[in-house]
Specification:
about 45% helix; disordered C terminus; binds zinc ion; TIM Barrel; three-stranded parallel beta sheet; 13 helices; alpha/beta; five-stranded parallel beta sheet; about 290 residues
Length: about 290
Protein backbone atom coordinates (compact mmCIF):
# COMPACT_ATOMS: atom_id res chain seq x y z
CA UNK A 1 0.00 0.00 0.00
CA UNK A 2 1.37 3.47 -0.79
CA UNK A 3 1.84 5.79 2.14
CA UNK A 4 1.36 9.52 1.87
CA UNK A 5 2.21 12.51 3.98
CA UNK A 6 -0.82 13.65 5.93
CA UNK A 7 -1.21 17.19 7.22
CA UNK A 8 -4.00 16.76 9.76
CA UNK A 9 -4.25 20.44 10.62
CA UNK A 10 -3.65 23.22 8.15
CA UNK A 11 -5.47 26.47 7.36
CA UNK A 12 -5.43 26.47 3.58
CA UNK A 13 -7.89 29.37 3.42
CA UNK A 14 -5.18 31.61 4.93
CA UNK A 15 -2.80 31.22 1.99
CA UNK A 16 -2.77 34.40 -0.07
CA UNK A 17 -2.53 32.33 -3.26
CA UNK A 18 -4.98 29.43 -3.05
CA UNK A 19 -4.12 27.94 -6.41
CA UNK A 20 -0.38 27.86 -5.65
CA UNK A 21 -1.00 26.10 -2.30
CA UNK A 22 -3.34 23.63 -4.02
CA UNK A 23 -0.77 22.97 -6.72
CA UNK A 24 1.93 22.19 -4.20
CA UNK A 25 -0.37 19.84 -2.28
CA UNK A 26 -1.08 17.95 -5.47
CA UNK A 27 2.57 17.80 -6.52
CA UNK A 28 3.71 16.51 -3.14
CA UNK A 29 0.63 14.29 -2.71
CA UNK A 30 -0.13 15.63 0.77
CA UNK A 31 -3.48 14.54 2.20
CA UNK A 32 -4.57 17.80 3.80
CA UNK A 33 -7.25 17.97 6.48
CA UNK A 34 -8.03 21.65 6.13
CA UNK A 35 -9.39 23.34 9.24
CA UNK A 36 -11.62 26.36 9.13
CA UNK A 37 -12.16 29.10 11.72
CA UNK A 38 -15.70 30.17 10.85
CA UNK A 39 -18.33 29.85 8.12
CA UNK A 40 -16.55 32.05 5.56
CA UNK A 41 -13.25 30.17 5.85
CA UNK A 42 -15.08 26.83 5.57
CA UNK A 43 -16.73 27.91 2.32
CA UNK A 44 -13.38 29.16 0.98
CA UNK A 45 -11.73 25.84 1.85
CA UNK A 46 -14.53 23.89 0.17
CA UNK A 47 -13.95 25.94 -2.94
CA UNK A 48 -10.26 24.95 -2.90
CA UNK A 49 -11.22 21.29 -2.52
CA UNK A 50 -13.61 21.26 -5.47
CA UNK A 51 -11.03 20.12 -7.97
CA UNK A 52 -8.37 18.89 -5.57
CA UNK A 53 -8.90 15.41 -4.12
CA UNK A 54 -6.06 15.83 -1.63
CA UNK A 55 -7.97 18.44 0.38
CA UNK A 56 -10.58 17.51 2.99
CA UNK A 57 -12.33 20.66 4.21
CA UNK A 58 -13.56 20.60 7.80
CA UNK A 59 -15.93 22.99 9.52
CA UNK A 60 -15.30 24.50 12.93
CA UNK A 61 -15.63 27.70 14.91
CA UNK A 62 -12.25 28.65 16.38
CA UNK A 63 -12.53 29.96 19.98
CA UNK A 64 -11.28 33.31 18.70
CA UNK A 65 -14.46 33.63 16.61
CA UNK A 66 -16.98 32.11 19.02
CA UNK A 67 -18.35 35.60 19.71
CA UNK A 68 -19.38 35.92 16.07
CA UNK A 69 -21.97 33.14 16.32
CA UNK A 70 -25.41 34.77 16.40
CA UNK A 71 -27.51 31.65 16.72
CA UNK A 72 -26.04 28.22 17.43
CA UNK A 73 -28.54 26.49 15.16
CA UNK A 74 -27.10 28.50 12.23
CA UNK A 75 -24.10 26.17 12.48
CA UNK A 76 -26.08 22.98 11.91
CA UNK A 77 -26.02 23.03 8.12
CA UNK A 78 -22.22 23.27 8.10
CA UNK A 79 -21.72 20.79 10.95
CA UNK A 80 -23.87 18.25 9.16
CA UNK A 81 -21.95 18.82 5.93
CA UNK A 82 -18.51 18.27 7.46
CA UNK A 83 -17.13 14.72 7.86
CA UNK A 84 -14.63 15.84 10.52
CA UNK A 85 -15.04 18.91 12.73
CA UNK A 86 -12.28 21.48 13.31
CA UNK A 87 -10.94 23.74 14.53
CA UNK A 88 -12.85 24.06 17.79
CA UNK A 89 -11.89 24.41 21.45
CA UNK A 90 -11.03 26.87 24.19
CA UNK A 91 -8.25 29.44 24.54
CA UNK A 92 -7.46 31.31 27.74
CA UNK A 93 -4.15 32.69 26.49
CA UNK A 94 -4.20 34.35 23.08
CA UNK A 95 -7.96 34.85 22.97
CA UNK A 96 -8.77 35.48 26.62
CA UNK A 97 -10.60 38.63 25.46
CA UNK A 98 -13.44 36.39 24.25
CA UNK A 99 -15.39 35.59 27.44
CA UNK A 100 -14.95 32.00 28.57
CA UNK A 101 -18.72 31.55 28.82
CA UNK A 102 -19.07 32.48 25.14
CA UNK A 103 -16.27 30.13 24.09
CA UNK A 104 -17.73 27.28 26.15
CA UNK A 105 -21.25 27.74 24.79
CA UNK A 106 -20.05 27.29 21.19
CA UNK A 107 -17.58 24.52 22.05
CA UNK A 108 -20.24 22.60 23.98
CA UNK A 109 -22.79 22.90 21.17
CA UNK A 110 -20.31 21.55 18.61
CA UNK A 111 -19.09 18.79 20.93
CA UNK A 112 -22.70 17.69 21.37
CA UNK A 113 -22.97 17.39 17.57
CA UNK A 114 -19.75 15.32 17.48
CA UNK A 115 -21.02 13.11 20.31
CA UNK A 116 -24.35 12.43 18.61
CA UNK A 117 -22.77 11.83 15.20
CA UNK A 118 -19.66 10.08 16.60
CA UNK A 119 -17.41 12.47 14.77
CA UNK A 120 -13.72 13.22 15.02
CA UNK A 121 -13.01 16.80 16.09
CA UNK A 122 -9.72 18.72 16.05
CA UNK A 123 -9.37 20.59 19.35
CA UNK A 124 -7.41 23.66 20.41
CA UNK A 125 -6.66 23.69 24.16
CA UNK A 126 -4.31 26.64 24.83
CA UNK A 127 -4.17 27.32 28.60
CA UNK A 128 -7.59 25.68 29.01
CA UNK A 129 -6.37 22.09 29.03
CA UNK A 130 -8.01 21.03 32.31
CA UNK A 131 -11.37 22.54 31.30
CA UNK A 132 -11.25 20.87 27.88
CA UNK A 133 -10.53 17.52 29.53
CA UNK A 134 -13.45 18.03 31.89
CA UNK A 135 -15.88 19.06 29.17
CA UNK A 136 -14.92 16.14 26.94
CA UNK A 137 -16.04 13.76 29.67
CA UNK A 138 -19.64 14.78 28.98
CA UNK A 139 -19.38 13.80 25.31
CA UNK A 140 -17.88 10.32 25.34
CA UNK A 141 -18.83 9.47 21.75
CA UNK A 142 -17.09 12.52 20.28
CA UNK A 143 -13.65 11.52 18.98
CA UNK A 144 -11.10 14.17 19.94
CA UNK A 145 -7.91 14.88 18.06
CA UNK A 146 -5.85 17.15 20.31
CA UNK A 147 -3.99 19.72 18.23
CA UNK A 148 -0.61 21.29 19.18
CA UNK A 149 -0.95 20.48 22.89
CA UNK A 150 1.65 22.30 24.96
CA UNK A 151 0.09 22.28 28.44
CA UNK A 152 0.83 20.26 31.58
CA UNK A 153 2.08 16.70 31.05
CA UNK A 154 -0.27 15.16 33.62
CA UNK A 155 -3.37 16.37 31.76
CA UNK A 156 -1.86 15.19 28.48
CA UNK A 157 -1.32 11.76 30.06
CA UNK A 158 -5.04 11.59 30.88
CA UNK A 159 -5.92 12.49 27.28
CA UNK A 160 -3.63 9.77 25.96
CA UNK A 161 -5.10 7.28 28.42
CA UNK A 162 -8.54 8.05 27.00
CA UNK A 163 -7.14 7.09 23.59
CA UNK A 164 -7.25 10.51 21.95
CA UNK A 165 -5.15 11.12 18.86
CA UNK A 166 -2.75 14.07 19.05
CA UNK A 167 -1.12 16.14 16.32
CA UNK A 168 2.53 17.18 16.40
CA UNK A 169 3.84 19.86 14.07
CA UNK A 170 6.50 22.43 13.35
CA UNK A 171 6.87 23.15 17.08
CA UNK A 172 8.65 19.79 17.63
CA UNK A 173 11.80 21.44 16.27
CA UNK A 174 11.61 24.33 18.72
CA UNK A 175 10.27 23.07 22.05
CA UNK A 176 11.86 20.69 24.59
CA UNK A 177 8.51 20.42 26.36
CA UNK A 178 6.74 19.31 23.21
CA UNK A 179 9.47 16.79 22.47
CA UNK A 180 8.89 15.35 25.97
CA UNK A 181 5.15 15.11 25.27
CA UNK A 182 5.89 13.40 21.97
CA UNK A 183 8.17 10.88 23.71
CA UNK A 184 5.32 9.85 26.02
CA UNK A 185 2.81 9.49 23.13
CA UNK A 186 2.22 5.95 21.83
CA UNK A 187 3.01 5.73 18.11
CA UNK A 188 -0.51 4.69 17.26
CA UNK A 189 -1.90 8.01 18.60
CA UNK A 190 0.42 10.33 16.65
CA UNK A 191 -0.73 12.49 13.73
CA UNK A 192 1.26 15.18 11.88
CA UNK A 193 0.33 18.78 11.14
CA UNK A 194 1.80 22.07 9.94
CA UNK A 195 -0.87 24.53 11.17
CA UNK A 196 0.15 26.45 8.04
CA UNK A 197 0.63 29.06 6.83
CA UNK A 198 1.29 31.11 9.98
CA UNK A 199 2.83 28.84 12.60
CA UNK A 200 6.36 28.15 11.37
CA UNK A 201 6.95 31.86 10.77
CA UNK A 202 5.52 32.68 14.16
CA UNK A 203 8.08 30.29 15.67
CA UNK A 204 10.91 32.07 13.86
CA UNK A 205 11.22 29.84 10.77
CA UNK A 206 10.74 30.78 7.15
CA UNK A 207 9.00 27.85 5.42
CA UNK A 208 5.23 28.26 5.24
CA UNK A 209 4.71 25.94 2.28
CA UNK A 210 2.54 22.79 2.46
CA UNK A 211 5.68 20.67 2.01
CA UNK A 212 6.79 21.74 5.49
CA UNK A 213 5.05 18.50 6.50
CA UNK A 214 8.15 16.63 5.24
CA UNK A 215 10.32 18.27 7.88
CA UNK A 216 7.66 17.75 10.55
CA UNK A 217 7.65 14.00 9.91
CA UNK A 218 11.47 13.99 10.02
CA UNK A 219 11.40 15.81 13.37
CA UNK A 220 8.86 13.37 14.81
CA UNK A 221 10.90 10.40 13.54
CA UNK A 222 14.02 11.72 15.23
CA UNK A 223 12.33 12.10 18.61
CA UNK A 224 10.76 8.65 18.37
CA UNK A 225 14.06 7.09 17.26
CA UNK A 226 12.69 5.62 14.03
CA UNK A 227 13.41 6.20 10.35
CA UNK A 228 11.54 8.86 8.43
CA UNK A 229 9.89 6.33 6.13
CA UNK A 230 8.68 4.17 9.03
CA UNK A 231 7.38 7.30 10.74
CA UNK A 232 5.50 8.39 7.61
CA UNK A 233 3.94 4.93 7.31
CA UNK A 234 2.83 4.93 10.95
CA UNK A 235 1.28 8.39 10.67
CA UNK A 236 -0.39 7.54 7.37
CA UNK A 237 -1.78 4.34 8.92
CA UNK A 238 -3.18 6.26 11.90
CA UNK A 239 -4.71 8.88 9.60
CA UNK A 240 -6.15 6.32 7.26
CA UNK A 241 -7.79 4.58 10.22
CA UNK A 242 -9.66 7.82 10.90
CA UNK A 243 -10.42 8.72 7.29
CA UNK A 244 -11.93 5.42 6.24
CA UNK A 245 -14.09 5.25 9.36
CA UNK A 246 -15.94 8.52 9.12
CA UNK A 247 -19.51 8.30 10.37
CA UNK A 248 -21.28 10.30 7.68
CA UNK A 249 -21.66 10.18 3.98
CA UNK A 250 -18.99 12.67 2.95
CA UNK A 251 -19.80 15.17 0.23
CA UNK A 252 -18.72 14.33 -3.27
CA UNK A 253 -15.46 16.25 -3.14
CA UNK A 254 -14.42 14.28 -0.08
CA UNK A 255 -15.49 11.05 -1.61
CA UNK A 256 -12.93 11.58 -4.37
CA UNK A 257 -10.20 11.54 -1.75
CA UNK A 258 -11.10 8.09 -0.63
CA UNK A 259 -10.10 6.57 -3.91
CA UNK A 260 -6.59 7.60 -3.00
CA UNK A 261 -6.76 6.27 0.51
CA UNK A 262 -8.08 2.98 -0.71
CA UNK A 263 -5.41 2.49 -3.35
CA UNK A 264 -7.83 2.60 -6.24
CA UNK A 265 -5.45 4.73 -8.20
CA UNK A 266 -3.34 1.72 -9.10
CA UNK A 267 -6.40 -0.18 -10.15
CA UNK A 268 -7.69 2.74 -12.24
CA UNK A 269 -4.53 3.93 -13.92
CA UNK A 270 -4.76 4.98 -17.51
CA UNK A 271 -8.36 6.17 -17.31
CA UNK A 272 -9.39 9.83 -17.34
CA UNK A 273 -9.95 11.29 -13.89
CA UNK A 274 -13.74 11.01 -13.64
CA UNK A 275 -13.83 7.58 -15.22
CA UNK A 276 -11.16 6.39 -12.84
CA UNK A 277 -13.38 7.06 -9.89
CA UNK A 278 -16.60 5.68 -11.29
CA UNK A 279 -14.72 2.64 -12.56
CA UNK A 280 -13.31 2.06 -9.10
CA UNK A 281 -16.76 2.24 -7.56
CA UNK A 282 -18.31 -0.12 -10.07
CA UNK A 283 -15.62 -2.76 -9.86
CA UNK A 284 -14.93 -2.72 -6.18
CA UNK A 285 -17.41 -1.18 -3.76
CA UNK A 286 -15.60 1.04 -1.30
CA UNK A 287 -15.34 -0.53 2.14
CA UNK A 288 -16.86 2.52 3.77
CA UNK A 289 -19.65 2.70 6.29
CA UNK A 290 -22.40 4.14 4.13
ZN1 LIG B 1 -4.99 25.99 13.74
Amino acid sequence: MPSYYVDFHTHLHSYPDHSQAGKEIREHKIISVAASMDIASYLATKEMAKDNPWIIPTFGIHPKYSGSVVSLSDLDIYLNDSPIIGEIGLDECWHADVPQSVQEKVFEYILDHCHRKRKYCVIHTKDAEARVLEMLKNFPDAKPIIHWYDGPADIFRKMLDRGYYTTFGCQVKYSDHIRELLKMTPKEQILSETDNPDSEKWLGGTDDSPSLIHRVVRDIAEVKGISESVCRKIIYGNSREILVNLPINPPKYTYQCFCFFLSHQQHCQGLPYQARHSQALKDRPLPLPW
